[in-house]
Task: structure prediction
Amino acid sequence: MSALTIRPATIDDTPVILRFVRELAVYENAGHEVLATTEHVHHTLFCAVPKVFGLICEEGETTVGFAVYFFNYSTWQGRHGLYLEDLYVAPEHRGKGAGMALLKHLARIAVDNDCGRFEWSVLDWNAPSIALYESLGAKPQSEWIRYRLTGAELQALATAP
Result:
């Protein structure tokens, strides 16, 4: 087994990022919800001043996983936080430490950037991931309810008088 390496994603990684996004969505029973295109990835991850960042995990010459993250802000802490939007390791490469390597790398980015938090969301049925996160000492935030506006509802609020 080759050593795992993690590096920042580059524009040349766009096809594998999109493949992993689609595979993750299928795993989460939401494959039909993926709208991202090559142009979206280029415009967001690889623009002049990106607000979202990607990591690629490789074993030798093989890309085995990825993560996408961004910085948020806690007014209570007066510090930035790191929010992990997606982390995915291809099924045939699981159990080799790639997920843990990505989490450790992200934790180092958070610490290096003086972040007060490292947060993410997980589906309530994803028992293997929940077990991993809890083994790290991560705590579920059950007192908060996450809300989302999309599509017509988002447009209606944005254009409301």
